[in-house]
Amino acid sequence: MDLAGRYVLVGLIWLVAAMVEGFWMGLTGQMQYLALHVVMTLSGGVLGIAFGTLLRVWPKVGADRWAFAQFLLWNFGVLGQSLGAIVRAWGSGDALIALMSLVVLAAALLMLALFYRHAAGETVLSTGPARQTAHSG
Known about the structure:
Distance between the termini: 36 Å
Number of domains: 1
Shape: elongated
Number of strands: 0
Order of helices and strands: HHHHH
Radius of gyration: 18 Å
Strand content: under 5%
């Protein structure tokens, strides 16, 4: 599986896990885990799928030597945010969430740099027949 596929797979796993956790929160009334739900959904699921989609649309970005390091940095940050959210529900953990939020921010900034280096200014629709619509005329 290529890096874009790994991103989407991990993002979908985060989304399903967030749905299960959200169901459990609603069932038990454990609303102190809301921060965990938000982290899992947005930083894990949505951001992972967005990064994977970006790499699929602009494959040169995913081929950069820093792309896998960015993937690991993002995963480490989201996992740390999630652990921090659990510890926060137990009464502390704000420092861990803040620190890991900086890690996720660093991963996002690295993705921005990779995109800028390889894809900024490229027109996606002009890259070939695979991107054209099926109903041409």
